[in-house]
Amino acid sequence: MPIDAAKALAAAPRIGEISWDSRDVQLYHLGIGAGIPATDPDELRYTLESRLHVLPSFATVAGGGKPGVISGLSMPGIEVDLARVLHGGQSLTVHRPLPVQGTATSTGTIAAVYDKGKAAVLVMRTEVADADGPLWTNDAQIFVRGEGGWGGDRGPSARLEPPAGPPDRVVERAVREDQALLYRLSGDWNPLHADPEFAKVAGFERPILHGLCTYGIALKAVVDTLLGGDVTRVHGYDTRFAGVVYPGESLRIRMWGPRDGEVRIAVSSVDRDDAPVLADTVVRHS
Asked: Is residue 202 a contact partner of residue 83, using CB atoms and an 8 Å limit?
């Protein structure tokens, strides 16, 4: 069996040092569409080193190594075809504001393996701490088509009750034709996002945008629209990847809140009749 759940869960943690600086942060921000208009003071806090604030979703690429959706596939007990892999969801807990530059220890484990019948779901957990204590915890839910059916635990449902009533705010964000090519420079080199032939093998008409790029675009929209541009107010951010985005499309981001320290979000593709992209999405904030 390509996935040995017991072996994966029992594997020793992968521990390593990561570091980043202002250039890495700026590149990530540009990769999620920051800097338009280039001279807008609200955008300069994402692009100009003298004013730089770090959007918490930068945690998903900090250190420039393989993201959880890739690194988890090389853990003991796991041997799967990359073409069958999709990023199912992402959960981020921010323990304190992310510094513009830093060095930290990253600890990676397989936190759970679920049997969804026609697929398996791996939860790759990455915990990051520096000399002052914990910085963030990332959980990447990795969906592997065709690898379920061994009779294991199905795991919890990621579905939430839909938000009540119409959204409080709706914004649209354009995705550049080269957005995936720019975003992948932050460390996710999966050919699904750049190589047309690989994308076809994986079942897509052309390369798709990274789910974590959409994730960052949506969080920036919430921070800029509802949280006064204050990145330090974000304490957590969870989503389920409900569909794909093709570079060149536009995203429609619906927001409910803030209410009780949360903003609910739904993201869809304007170009494909509001096809869902991010669902069951929550930003937790102060």
From this structure: yes
Is-cis flag, bond preceding 162, omega within 30?
Answer: no
Cβ–Cβ contacts within 10 Å for residue 176, how many? 15
User: In which region does residue 146 sit, left (phi positive, over 0), alpha (psi from -120 to 50) or beta (all else)?
Assistant: left
Residue 270's Cβ-count burial label (10 Å; 0-12, 13-18, 19+) is middle
Give the Cβ contact number of residue 37 at 10 Å: 9
Q: What is the pLDDT of residues 79-111, one digit of tens each?
A: 777 667 778 899 999 999 999 999 999 999 999
Phi then psi dihedrals of residue 204, to 5 deg:
-115, 150
* Beta strands in the chain, from DSSP E residues, in sequence order: 14-20, 85-94, 102-115, 119-130, 133-145, 169-174, 234-241, 250-259, 262-269, 275-285
pLDDT band at 117 (very low <50, low <70, confident <90, very high): confident
Question: What is the pLDDT at residue 80?
Answer: 74
More confident residue, 228 or 164: 228
> What burial class does residue 53 get, using C-beta atoms within 10 Å of its C-beta: 0-12 exposed, 13-18 middle, 19+ buried?
middle
Q: Under DSSP, is residue 197 helix (H, G, I), strand (E, B) or coil?
A: helix
State what percent of residues in the chain have pLDDT above 90.
Answer: 72
Residue 69: phi and psi, rounded to 5, are -65, -25
Confirm if 259 and 282 have CB atoms less than 8 A apart.
no
Average pLDDT, the chain: 92
Tokens 């076809």, residue located: 200
Residue 190: CB atoms within 10 Å: 21
Active site residues: 188, 193
